[in-house]
Structures are given as structure tokens and as C-alpha cells.
Amino acid sequence: MFLLLVLLVAISADGYAQSPQEVEVIQHNELTREYISPHRVLWQSGNVENTDQLLKAGNGQADLTNASICVLKNDETGKPASILLDFGKELHGGLEIVTGMWSPGNTTRNIRVRFGESASEAMAEIGEKGAANDHAIRDFDMQVPWLGKIQVGESGFRFVRIDLLDADAELHLKEVRAIFTYRDIPYLGSFKSSDERLNEIWKTGAYTVHLNMQEYLWDGIKRDRLVWVGDLHPEVATVNTVFGYNEVVPKSLDLARDVTPLPGWMSGISTYSMWWIILHQDWYMHHGDLEYLKQQQPYLSGLVKQIAAKIGPDGKELMDGNRFLDWPSSEDPEAVHAGLQAMAIWSLSTAATLSEIMGDDETRQIAERAVSNLKKYIPKMGQSKQAAALMALTDLVPATQANTQVLAVAGAKNFSTFYGYYMLQAMAKAGNYEGALDVIRSYWGAMLDLGATTFWEDFNLDWLPNASRIDELVPDGKKDIHGDYGDYCYVGFRHSLCHGWASGPTAWLTEHVLGIKVTAPGSKQISITPHLGDLEYAEGTFPTPYGLVYVKHTKQSDGQVKSEIKAPKEVNIVNGSAH
């Protein structure tokens, strides 16, 4: 961040300058712009020449030589000239187009630009299979200058299609580069094991959240480019695991608080206000900023009273607002009720702990009484993996029971990208580490098999049969994994293929395979209890306010695990029993 001091000179009615007024303008210099050339030309149509020029590293500068130019030409006999560019991985940002000289000179050209998270999305028309321009304009017509450059667009994308719209005309392209906009921050946390698939999943989850760390912490870089507090919980777990402290987290938590005066629910959803409480405990445990925590006390106290007032005398939750856990569970009212019961216990237990830390005895007592009341009633778990996970994590049912009867049934079937994190956490609590690893490989790994470079808003194993990859045009007879699937608010191409709430395996692998868990505020104490499952070794780093903790766990011939641990002197390491 830097400060820009501006002197404003006031002008009186008679035109004479009055005394200057010093005004402080705060600007944030937190995002970096990097220019990336296409990885390949995936498709072209009509009269297009010298596409290899666009794959070369550019300098962003038009020049008079016109020596090496990609030419798109429309004439009366051919198809409109079009190209589809693949930038190799999901990006957030826009597009820079550098043009050459065509005849007649000094005239603009009209083009159409389409961004896509999949190749098929970049080829679609607005309204086709859910293709839309909401949240981010990803399909538009524009003019480009003769012998100049222009920068346009802001969305999440990997593919860009360009069509020349003018009849009987040429378009000369010297460069078409993605403007990659991101936070230039180091990946402090790391994970490496004997299973390269798990390694790639860990990195992909980290990159998914990294892209969403824009001015605020979003859940999606194409859609939704918003701060959804429930979505923040797995995202912040990944931020803590990979990047350590970053101002985007408190900035986003404060935004959610400030735009939601009580008695409102954050995002209109009662559980999202509950997640706000839980997030503050996670943030305090990792970073130990008591002053920041105390700033939340007035709002937290009011929120606790509001949640407690929505509990019946029999201990049943009676939450109003949008009763929501995640989309796949939204049509199962019994699952939602069970999840809300568990979330009320989790959030109020957390609020009691935070209130004790802040010396707020009144709020602590209200929260503790409410939790005691809630625990008198145990809802039906049913077969919902969302409900089973939350009930196991809050001890409404034994974790082993939830795992055996629901979570481990049929492997990754009925997992979801958001609540999959809590399903994995509950499986770990039940001791089913190998089962959780298998789910990570089969569920999140399947997205990688389909060409993903970031994790998706939703995914269902039922979509896999005969599905095409997102980095190819759909072959005849195959299903379009992007355009043909999706549900609820994310039908077809509206489906976000970069959603931070899907990053749970990154945090989970560090916590349970590396075994790193913060057990005292400010990361001053960390327990290390690795669970290698079927892995031969796992190693990695974990950021703390005092520096990195490094661990390496190696399975010996007798099945025992040998651990090497290095930590800053300020961090007390407590070793558990390895498996």
C-alpha cells in the first residue's frame, strides 16, 4: 500500500486561488499485471495466416516493420476469419491486442471477443447452454485501432476466441496477450509425497484460491466475483496453509460484517453468519492478532444473541433467512435441518471460546447456555453426506458411525466441492485416512483428468461417462462436461470452473497427511501427527508468524514412520503418534 498526497487549490467565485487544502488519497498497489502469450491456437476458421506469430513472446509495442503478422481476412467467398487461443491455464484478467498495418490505413476494425473457462464456452453464443455476461462481460464486440494496441476485459478464462466482423477486410495482429492480474505473493506452504496425483491436487487447490485473492477474497473469478462468507471458510483454510497472513482475509471478513447490519444474515444465509464466527477463530489461532479479534466483539455479541434466539425450548434450531448448506443438499430439508443444528452448535461453541478470550462473560454465558440447549436434540442424520459430516464434527453422532453408515458409502459418490472438505474432515476424525485419500484422488483428481487447472464450483462423478475434456472442442458423440452439466444457479457454461470453495484437499493434506495442526493462538504451538496411509513419504512446509515449519515423514520397512521436523524457536512442537 502507498499513500498519495494531493494538494487541491480551491478557486473563489472571482477566480482567485484560495488557501490549498491537503487531501489524503489512499491507493492500494496489491495486484500485479503479467502479460502471457497464448500456449497454442486450438482452432481457426476462414482465411487466417501466420498464427505462430501469436505464440511468440511479445513486448506490447506496435511497430512500423509489420514484419511478422498474423492476418485474418474476410472476403466474399470464404467463412468469417476466426481463431481460438489457449493460454494454457486458468487466469484472471483481460486481454491486450497489438495491431499492425492494414489497407486502407488509419481505419479501425470491428471484432468479437469471447472468453471461456473451457474451449466450448469460448465458442458458445450468449444464451447457449447457460453462456452469460453476468458478473463479468466475457462476450462482446469492440473496435481495435490501426497500428496500436488496446486492453479490454476482466474475467476468469483460459480460452479466447476472436472473430473479424468486417466484410471484405483484413485484421493484422502482432500480439494477443492475456493480462494476468493476481497478487504476487510467495507460496510459503508446500506439499510433496510419493503420489504425484495428490501433489498436483494440492497445488491446484492452492492456485484456485490464489486466483480468487483479488481486491477481496472471491469465490469465483468469472462467477461469482463476490465475498460469500461460507465459501470463505475452506478458502481461508487454504490461505493459512499456503500463504500465511494476507490482508485480503480480514478485509473480506470486515466487508461482510460492515454490509450486514444485524439482524441481517450475511449473504441472507444464517449459516454464513455462523461461518463468520468460525473463521475468526481460525484466523486468531493462526495469527494471534488479539487486537483485531477484539474489534469484532460488538458484532459478535449481537450475532450470538440473534442465533440463540432462533433455538426452540426443545433445543431444535429455528433459523430463518435462507436455510442453506450447499447446493447439492438444498432440496433435502431434513439434511439442511440437521446441518443447521450442527452449525449452530459449532458456531456458538466457537463464540463462547472467543468471548472468553476477549473477557466478554455475558456473551460467553449466552453462547454456552444455547449450546447446552441445542445438544438436547439430535436430528436424523439420514444419508446426506453434508449432514453426516457436520454432525460428526460437532459430536452429534460418533464420527465412526457417520463414516461407516454415510460418508464412506460408495466412495466419492454424492461428494460436493464445497462440503467435500467437511466430509474429508469427518472421515479423518473417524480414522478413515486411506478412504479420504482415495476420495481426493478419484473426485478432485477426475477434474484434473478432464483438463482442469483449477477446481470447479461443483462436480459429480455421474458426469464422467463419455465426457470430453475442457481443453478440447467436443468431439462428435461425446458429452460437453462444461456445457451439458451443472445445476441450480450454475447450469451449463454459467458453471464456474475456478471456485475457491473447492480447495479443501489442499488444507486437508497438510493438516492430516503432514499432520500439522495449530493448537495455540498465533501458531505458538503446533501438533504434528502424520497419517501417511498408503504413501511411502510426505514432506512440506507450513507458514507461521515466525517462519516456516518443515516436516518430512518417511515410512520405514517395519511400517513405522520416521519424522524430521524443523521449526522456529518461537513455535512449540508437540509430536503425536504417526500412522
Automatic annotation (TrEMBL):
InterPro entries: 6-hairpin_glycosidase_sf (IPR008928), 6hp_glycosidase-like_sf (IPR012341), Bac_rhamnosid6H (IPR035396), Bac_rhamnosid_C (IPR035398). Residues 1-17 form the signal peptide. It comes from the Bacteria. Keywords: Signal. Residues 188-511 form the Alpha-L-rhamnosidase six-hairpin glycosidase domain. Residues 515-572 form the Alpha-L-rhamnosidase C-terminal domain. Coiled coil: none annotated. One of its GO terms (biological process) is carbohydrate metabolic process. The keyword Signal applies. Pfam families: Bac_rhamnosid6H, Bac_rhamnosid_C. This is Alpha-L-rhamnosidase. It comes from Parapedobacter pyrenivorans.
